[in-house]
Amino acid sequence: MTFDTIIFYFFAAFAVVSAIVMITRRSAVHSAVFLITTLLATAGIFLQLEAEFLFVVQIILYVGGIMVLFLFVIMLVNLDVAVRQIQFSRQAWVGAVLAIALGAQVLMAFRLGSGAFNLPAASTRAMQPNAEQIGAALFQRYMLPFEIASILLLVAMIGAVVMAKRKI
Amino acid sequence: MLTPSHYLYLSLALFTIGVIGVLTRRNVIIILMSIELILNAVNINLVAFSRLWGSVDGQVFAIFIITDAAAEAAVGLGIIIAFFRNRETVLADEMDLLKW
């Protein structure tokens, strides 16, 4: 086992275990904390894949931005009541069975198709310097999607402000 | 030796856990968090294939997905706050204003 493999399995196990814990916790705050550990483990996977820029973006944006937003909303809505109620919906077992069936189908597709994928061997072409290359791609080839994403963020910001206003 | 299928299986596991979370939980905030988990699973795939092909295009797409996740979280949480103010609940099966 190389160092690379050990790092991958460590972060993968970390991510999967904390994801399972996340969807089973009663309190939403605990769920949020375990989602943060999952996102951090995913950031580790990104680093192992030599995507350093995305590793930093994941930590700053997801853990530092989105999850703080989630925790704020959890504090705003009254969760003392929600904790004492039943946590799973009435048809939860149907949903779980369907989700596992979906996962098993995709797994079977991977198994059957793994020979036919005919993937090339992992490229050794360096993607360094990573941040510079992503910046060049964003501002040259993906200029239009980049601008559309900024409009999307503007619309989402206006939408969030309108939704959270006391009087609409 | 790590192959792309390792990352595919990891991504599949996280995706399935996220779908289970969306379909079984009643708390809307936890459902939104499960959606974040699903988007994150997709990102692992994109970055793994970006490494495989030796091109940053996949990582650029992952950045766009993170942008979408941020927008979705902001709007979704705004809706939750607006709904909580009207109905005093965060449970998905009590949100039945349009049902008759």
Structural class of chain B: mainly alpha
Q: Largest interface, by Cβ-Cβ below 8 angstroms: which chains and how many residues each?
A: A-B, 88 and 75 residues
* General form of chain A: globular
Which architecture name of the largest domain in chain A does CATH use? Up-down Bundle
Tell me how many strands of chain B there are: 0
Low-confidence parts of chain B lasting 5 or more residues at pLDDT below 50? none
**CATH top level class name of chain B:** Mainly Alpha
Count structural domains of chain A. Answer: 2
CATH homologous group name of the largest domain in chain A:
NADH-ubiquinone/plastoquinone oxidoreductase chain 6, subunit NuoJ
> What sort of overall outline of chain B do the alpha carbons produce when their principal axes are compared?
elongated
Derived structural class of chain A: mainly alpha
Describe this entry's structure for a reader.
- The complex is a heterodimer of chains A (168) and B (100).
- With 168 residues, chain A is mainly alpha-helical.
- Chain A has helices at residues 3-24, 28-48, 52-76, 79-84, 92-117, 130-139, 143-164.
- Chain A has 2 domains: 1-81, NADH-ubiquinone/plastoquinone oxidoreductase chain 6, subunit NuoJ (Four Helix Bundle (Hemerythrin (Met), subunit A), Up-down Bundle), CATH 1.20.120; 130-168.
- Chain A is 79% helix and 0% strand.
- In chain A, helix 1 (3-24) runs antiparallel to helix 2 and helix 2 runs antiparallel to helix 3.
- Chain A is globular.
- Chain B has one domain (4-89): Orthogonal Bundle (Helix Hairpins), CATH 1.10.287.
- Chain B has helices spanning 4-24, 28-53, 57-87.
- Chains A and B meet through helix 1, helix 2, helix 3, helix 5 and helix 6 of A and helix 1, helix 2 and helix 3 of B.
